[in-house]
# Entry
Amino acid sequence: MAEQTEMVPVFIMGKRYDVPASLTIMKAMEWAGYTLIRGVGCRGGFCGACATVYRIKDDPKLYFGLACQTVVRPDMYLGQIPFFPAKRAPYDIKAIKAEPATIFMTYPETLRCLGCGTCTKACPQELDVKGYMAAAMRGDIEKVANMSFDCIMCGLCAARCPAEEPQYNIAIMCRRLYGRYLAPRSEHLEKRVQELHEHKYDEELKALKALDMAGLKALYKERVIEK
Ligand code: SF4
Ligand code: SF4
Ligand code: FES
# Structure
């Protein structure tokens, strides 16, 4: 006899649905008949479009997750936040400098952070959001860039912040500043790009493209590996 699929009750927009226990929140919503147009993107945990908050019956805690990554739990009450309003300041990356004043001029609210840590608890990427905000308050652009590197811009931190901070927008500005002005330059890479502009490899690429699979495999085996 075929094994029975275990079903669990979840509540979507307040309505109960019994869904297979193995589904993610996103698949459960689709299984229940919803067609997702907003609040869905990559389905792989990268785009941040499917930020979701939920409660579990009789549990006072508020939970956060990505709908495409979080598996359903019994008695889950779901609420999706495909968009949460947060300030996004206009700036021209070519016209601003990688210095602390840029953070404070572009996002003066940075200094309003209370250090409560609610943002860190909300982050589905498990980033130390409070920590990178503290670095932003010190004007440490490099640290903000490094600490926020895995941010997927889902907005859950901003949705929970009592000081109305747009944490992820402050962080992406710092990553842009770091990438453009502070990150060490790779001489090798710049040299290679220059060579490409000078068409140095055109002939070699043409010859490669003309090879069949056997020829490519032979070439791969013969390749010289630099020590
Ligand atoms: S939730 Fe807001 S106020 Fe609290 S630590 Fe995070 S950024 Fe600061
Ligand atoms: S820092 Fe904020 S926007 Fe970025 S992944 Fe974490 S909760 Fe989402
Ligand atoms: S759909 Fe992209 S993170 Fe979930």
In short: The longest strand covers residues 7-12.
